[in-house]
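ok so i was messing around last nite and threw this chain in just to see what happens. nothing serious, just curious
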Amino acid sequence: MPPRAFLLCLLLTSSALSQHISSSLLHPSPRFQKDFANAFKYSIIFVSIGIGGIAINKREKWGLLSGVLGIALNLALFAFKYIYAGISGSLSLKADALNNLMDILSSAVIVFGFKIAARRADREHPYGHGRMEHIAGLIIAIVILFTGFSLGKDSIIRIFAPVPMESSTALYVILLAGILGKLAISGFHFALGKKIHSNTLVINAKDSGSDVLATSAVLFSLLAFDLWGWQIDGFAGLIVSAMILYAGFEAARETISTLMGEALSAEKAQEILRFVMTNELILGVHDIALHSYGVRRNLLTLHAEVDGKLTLSALHVEIDRLERRIMEQYGYKTLIHVDPVLVCESPAQIALREIVEQALQDAGEGLRYTDFNCDKDGGYLYFDVYAPYEMKIGGGELRDRISAYIHSKWRKDVQLGIAVNRY
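result:
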């Protein structure tokens, strides 16, 4: 069955089911039943038709499907919970309903995020639009936080001004159905997010997981009122608010970290280093960095040290071949910066290298150097120093310490060029 037909069948079934439940449980007027069911049905049909036939690739279609399913489920849950919150007077149920309303917005953000992220590269965005997925995740996090703060405020008010609740079998059915539905959508989003490498879907799965706990808190408050007469609705709402806020902060932290740019894991960096060093012309590798522009849109940059006596034409051919090999092995578009270094041959060069190594050892732990260059007489010396982020000494002070040591052990008129970096 084509994806669009599948969506239509699934969502029409959902709308028919919503009409049946509204008729059997809520007992509204016939006109209200018809208007609500039609509004639900045609809004979902509009979304599914609008996105079903214009997805660019398979990954986008999966993302759009998850967004539409989220809209359908959360729209139904919001409608039933909000109506029964008014009937029962339950603030925690109203809070849970508003949370589902925000989830509708989150699902819509997923839909449009995947649509924009799938656009091809253009003049203004030569690396594509893949980061829009991360921006969508940040919008979802902001929506989650806004909901949590709002519900927390209302819950505190209800704690100091409790209101008796009214319960019914239908209300318990709605809450249990909501828990099961959220468990299903959470599992679906999490598995799909891992499958297509979408952090936005994983964040949405965690949000749905917190919704399960939140609805469970509402269910407990109703049970406590029915069984023992405890009016803990406000406290349950506060628990719901805390769970929502936690989910929002976690989602925001993960998404902001991704947008700011994360370093390659130590394992992956070492793996790439070993792969590059298999080329016999490469003497050393440093400054390995991965720039992510979305899923499967990565630019790898690194500095490769080579013998400074090699010709530029020979190096160009070899480096170009190495970049293609990295693309084939890891799927990273690669840019290699060549650092020509002089292999130490003269006594002065050998002595200066030993002095530099001793200077770094005295300056602090974890220091290392690259791009060592000096003339045969030791008249000038240029190299890069890498200090760990944990080292509290500033770059200027560290440079002065190393320079003072070199001048004390070598000629004072030596020209020094020392660049300090962090790793």
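not much to say yet. The chain has twelve helices and six strands.
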